[in-house]
TrEMBL record:
UniProt-listed PANTHER family: CHEMOTAXIS PROTEIN CHEV
Domain Response regulatory residue range list: 170-291
Organism of derivation: Stutzerimonas zhaodongensis
Domain CheW-like: start-end pairs: 9-148
Name of the molecule in the record: Chemotaxis signal transduction protein CheV
Superkingdom field: Bacteria
GO BP term (any one): phosphorelay signal transduction system
Keyword match Transmembrane helix: no
Keywords: Phosphoprotein
Length: 302
């Protein structure tokens, strides 16, 4: 693979569940950590939702993370603490046994989960910490299993030219979350875009190489930012340095607030950035990409 190696470090928050085994969550996806508050149980709520807390006057759904990933619930439902996350346009509390510490690891040292476990587990990657293998939580999958997000965009108001532009667009989705891949592919296929999907930057370069001289050659890459091995910023920089892909359109797709990452995305060479997951906004971004690719409109990130 002809690309630059990733140099950015990823910060992980280590935590434990009932078994005491440590797991990790990307620190960028954590807004705060609080003691377990009093909860109000709502009738007919999902069985993995323990209840609703009030955080600074706002409701906060609290997920029993142990149950959500198929493990036994915590022994003391009032103990432990909440890891509050704000991702994919929603805020929730993940109930865990304890928070251990924060570690910083090179993105290149974080490996994808075992191949056979990719589609069934709640893990996006693994990392070695103090001689032990730590699994990194796929928060998007946990949330999606509890509250699925509609994946289709309404394209009924597209004119014939825009619809044609989209059918001539061939996208490569790069994301370590199987749920995010499924939602992106579903939305883009509905728009008429031809899609391929991979789970890492390494696989992305392999797919780009395999298609580059064919009628299916990719002309837009939709990449996650928070990925193992190489993050979306480093991946974009590698594309910009590659002789065959320097001019390819890149949309960075993040579960974090995209306004925080816009400057960094622009510096890396991305054309656009979008917070997961909004089918209407995805449709707008892809139409913007199609107009740049096929009509030569301005390609600078907003």
């Amino acid at each position: 693979m002809n690309n630059a190696s990733a140099t950015d470090a990823l910060s992980l928050l280590l935590f434990t569940l009932r078994s005491g085994k440590q797991m990790a969550i990307n620190l960028l996806k954590v807004s705060e950590i609080i003691p377990t508050p009093s909860l109000t149980r709502l009738p007919e709520s999902h069985p993995h939702v323990r209840g609703v807390a009030t955080l600074r006057g706002q409701p906060l759904s609290v997920i029993d993370l142990s149950m959500a990933i198929g493990m036994a619930p915590l022994q003391d439902p009032k103990g432990g603490c909440l890891i509050v996350t704000e991702i994919s346009r929603s805020k929730q509390g993940l109930h865990v046994q304890a928070v251990v510490k924060i570690v910083h690891i090179q993105s290149s040292k974080i490996l994808p989960p075992p191949y056979g476990a990719r589609n069934s587990s709640f893990i996006t990657g693994t990392a070695e910490v103090d001689g032990a293998l730590i699994q990194i939580l796929d928060v998007e999958k946990v949330i999606h299993n509890i509250s699925p997000i509609p994946a289709e965009a309404d394209i009924s108001d597209l004119d014939d030219q825009d619809a044609q532009l989209l059918t001539e667009t061939r996208a490569l989705i790069v994301d370590d979350s199987q749920v995010a891949i499924h939602m992106s592919v579903s939305a883009l296929t509905k728009m008429g875009v031809t899609c391929h999907a991979v789970r890492s930057a390494r696989e992305a370069f392999e797919k780009l190489d395999s298609l580059k001289d064919s009628y299916e050659a990719i002309n837009v890459v939709v990449s996650d930012i928070e990925m193992p091995e190489m993050d979306g910023y480093s991946f974009t920089q590698a594309l910009r340095k590659h002789p065959d892909y320097a001019s390819i359109y890149v949309l960075l797709h993040t579960s974090l607030d995209s306004t925080i990452s816009t400057d960094k995305a622009k510096a890396a060479g991305a054309n656009d950035i979008l917070t997961k997951f909004s089918p209407p906004e995805m449709a707008k971004c892809m139409l913007r990409a199609a107009r740049v690719i096929h009509l030569g409109e301005d390609a600078s990130v907003a």
